[in-house]
Amino acid sequence: MADMVTQRAHYSPPWADVSIIGIAAQGQDSFYKSLDEEASRKAFRNEYDFDSPDAIDFDVLVDRLRELKAGKRAEIPIYSFAKHAREKETTSIYSPHVLILEGIFALYDPRVLELLDMKIFCEADADTCLSRRILRDVEERGRDIKGCIKQWFAYVKPNFEAYVEPQRKVAVMVIQYIERKLIEKSKSHRAALKKLGQGSENDALSENVILLKQTSQVRGMNTIIQDIDTSAEDFIFYFDRIAALLVENALNNIYFESVTVETPTGNKYHGLHATGETSAVVILRAGSTFETGLRRVLPDCKTGRLLIQSNIRTGEPELHYLKLPHDIRTHDGVLLLDPQMSSGGAGLMAVQVLVDHGVPEDKIVFVTYFAGRIALKGLTKVFPGVKVVVCTTVPDFEERWVESRYLGC
Amino acid sequence: MASSAKPSQSPKQSVGPDYRPEKQKPTATVSTEVPFENVHTLSQTPQLIALLTMIRDKNTDRADFIFYSNRIIRLLVEEGLNHLPVVEHAITTPVGRTYAGVMFQGKICGVSIMRAGEAMEQGLRDCCRSVRIGKILIQRDEETCMPKLFYDKLPEDIADRWCLLLDPMFATGGSAIMAVDVLKSRGVPENRILFLNLIASPQGIENFAKKFPELRVVTAFIDQGLDEKNYIVPGLGDFGDRFYTM
User: Fold this and answer.
1) How many domains does one find in chain B?
2) What does the pLDDT average to over A182-202?
3) Model confidence at A372: pLDDT above 50
4) Residue B11 counted as domain residue
C-alpha cells in the first residue's frame, strides 16, 4: 500500500488553480447569510442592512473558492429575496478556467484577497448607482420607491463610504496577467501529459491493464476494423461486435458476491451476483461508438456523458460538457468508454472528473478498443486503482481514427 | 457407463480477476473438468457465472431469461468461431500503418435442433450476418423411448461448410448424436462440426467424446450429472419452455 502511494504519478487537471478575478461592483448575492426571524422581519421592512459586510457569509465564500482553486466541484448557495433565506437547491460549479467573483465586498475579506489573481474596482457615480438601484428594487423585487430611498441614505451610502470605497486601493487591473497565466497553465498541462509517458517505454504494463485474448476471431475482426478498405457497413458491424465483447470482459472487473439459487427442477446452484449497480460514462464524441455494444450487454444501465475535445491550436484536451447520473458515487462499477487512447490526455481528464464526483478509483473500469502503451502506462501510474480493458495496443501512440471511421466524418 | 463420469459434487472455487487477492474473490460452483481434448469450456469468469446464476434461478422471468441466455449464447458463438480456420492477411490501416492480420476462411452454416436450438439462432446471427441456418426436428418416440428424426431442412451445399450445431441443453446427448449422424450422412466430415451448448452433463460429454472423437464441443458449463428423469442437475429446467412458453 505504501508502495502504491509513493509510486503514484501526479496529475493535475487544467482547471486546478483556477484564475479568480474579483470585481467590486453591484453584483450577485449568492453569499448573503440566511436571516433569522427577527432579521427577516427587519428585512421585509427595509430596515436590515444588506450593504454591510456582516450580511455576507465570508466563511462559506472562502470555502467554496478554496474548493474551486483545488479543482474540485463547488456548490454555490442560492439566496431567495422572497424568503430571505437560502434555497435548498444550489448551483454547481466545476472545472472553470477563469472564475469571476462579483459583489460589493469582493475585495473585502483578506482570505478572499489571498485567493484572487486579479482585483478590479468598478466605479460608477452615485447618481447612476441610486437610479439603477431604484429601478431594480421596484421592478424586480417589488419594493416601493420610498423604501428604496430610505435604505439608500440609512445603509447603502454610509456603507459605501465606510467599506466599499477603501477597497479601491487594493484593486489592480492587469488583464495581461490572466492571459499569461492561462497560457502558462496550458503549456505546463501539456508538458505534464508528455512527461507522464516519458521514461516508461521499458516498463511493463500494469497488471490492471487487461488485454482482450487475441483469439483468431479477435484478430480477424481487428483486421477488418483496421483495414482502410473496409466498407462503413462492415466497419460498424464488426466494431459493434468487438465493443460488446469488450464490455462483457470489462464486467469481470466489477464486484460480485456468492448467492445460492434454486433451479426449476428443485436443485440448488451456488453462483454469483453483482453486489451493486453498474453504470457507464461515455467520453464524447468517440465514446458514443461504444453505445451499441454497451446496450447489447447492459440495455438499461445509466449512462453519463462528458465531452472532451482537444484544442485545435494547442492539442490540449478541454472539458466542454458534463452530465453524470446523480447517484454515481454509490455505484459499484463505472465503465468509462472511449474507443481509442491516443496521448491519453482525455482519458486522464475523464478519470479525474469521475474521482472528483466521488467515484472511488477501484470502481472505475476504463474500456477502450485501441490504445498506445505510453498512454496506458501514464493512466495506470496516475490512477493505480483503475482497471483498463483494451483490445489492441501499439507501442507509442497513434492519431485518433476509430470515431471518424465509425461516424463517417 | 454413465456412472463412471459422475462426480459427487461439482468443484467450488474463488472466482475473479487475477490482480485481486484470493480472499477478495467470492466462491462459486464452477464447471466440472473433463479429460477430453475436443471439449472446450468457456473461461469461468465471474460474469459468466453470474449470467448462469440468472438463467438457472427459477424466479427469473421470461424476458430476463431470454436476455441473459442470449448473452451467454453470443459468448459461445464467439468462442466456437475461434475453431474455424483463418489465413494470414496483411492490411493498411487508416493512419498508414501495416497490420499483419488474418482473414476468415471457409463457409459456415448453423444447424439448430428444434425447438430449443432455435433459441440460439439470434446469437449466431449477431456474430455472423446472413448466415444460412438449417433445422432438424428430433422427438422422442413414445413407444421405444428412443429419439426419432421427424424433419430436416439443410443447405444443399452443406458438405462444403463448417456446421455449428445448436442445442442449449446437452443431457444424454441422444438427439445430438442423431443430428450428427444426419450431418455426416449428408457428407459433412466430423471434424467440421462444432456442437454449441450452454449446459452439458458429464455423461453426455463422455458419450460424445467416445463416439465422435474429432467433433468439437463448445459449452459454457459442465454440470454435476443427470437425475433419474435424465434432467441435468442442477441444470435450469426445460430451456425451450422457459424461452418460448413459460
Assistant:
1) 1
2) 75
3) yes
4) no
Tens of pLDDT, residue by residue over A93-132, are 998 888 989 888 888 888 998 898 888 876 667 777 788 8
Does a structural domain hold residue B3? no
Residue of A nearest to B236 (CA): A263
Average pLDDT, chain A: 86
Q: What is the mean pLDDT of residues A233-242?
A: 94
Inter-chain contacts counted by CB atoms under 8 A, chains A and B: 145
> How far, in Å, CA of A389 to CA of A294, rounded?
14
Active site amino acids of B: 140, 144, 238, 241
Give the domain range for residue B109.
30-245
CA distance A17 to A221: 45
A38 Cβ under 8 Å from any chain B Cβ: no
CA of B191 to nearest chain A CA: how many angstroms apart? Answer: 18
Helix (H, G, I), strand (E, B) or coil at A180: helix
Cis check for the bond before A285: say yes or no (omega within 30 of 0). yes
Which positions in chain B touch A335 (Cβ < 8 Å)?
Answer: none
Report percent pLDDT > 90 for chain B. Answer: 72
Q: What is the CATH classification number for the domain harbouring B231?
A: 3.40.50.2020
> Which of A134-143, A199-208, A310-319, B168-177 is predicted most confidently?
B168-177
CATH number at A19-173? 3.40.50.300
Instruction: Give, rounded to a whole angstrom, the gap between the first and last alpha carbons of chain B.
Output: 34
pLDDT at position A225 is: 94
Are B53 and A248 a contacting pair at CB < 8 A? no
A260-277 b/e (C-beta count within 10 Å ≥ 16 → b)? ebebbbebebbbbbbeeb
Q: What is the CATH number of domain A202-407?
A: 3.40.50.2020
pLDDT in tens, B110-161: 999 988 999 999 999 999 998 999 999 998 777 777 888 889 999 999 999 9
How far is residue A49 from each of residues A153, A159, B216, measured CA to CA in Å? Answer: 11, 9, 86
User: What pLDDT band is residue B5 in, cutting at 50, 70 and 90?
Assistant: very low
CA distance B184 to chain A (A): 26
pTM: 0.79
Interface touch B127/A273, C-beta < 8 Å: no
Among the residues of chain B, which ranges form H helices? 46-56, 62-81, 121-127, 174-185, 202-211, 239-240
Q: Which residue has the higher pLDDT, B59 or A50?
A: B59
- Chain A, 173 to 212: residues with Cβ < 8 Å from chain B are 207-208, 210
Rounded to a whole number of angstroms, the distance from the CA of B211 to the nearest CA of chain A is: 28
- Can you give the residue ranges of every domain in chain A? 19-173, 202-407
A401/B94 CB distance under 8 A: yes
C-alpha to C-alpha distance for B246 and B243, rounded to whole angstroms: 7
Average pLDDT over residues B86-113: 92
Q: What is the CA radius of gyration of chain A?
A: 27
Nearest CB partner across the interface for B56, out of A229, A271, A399 = A271
Cβ atoms of residues A178 and A21 within 8 Å: yes
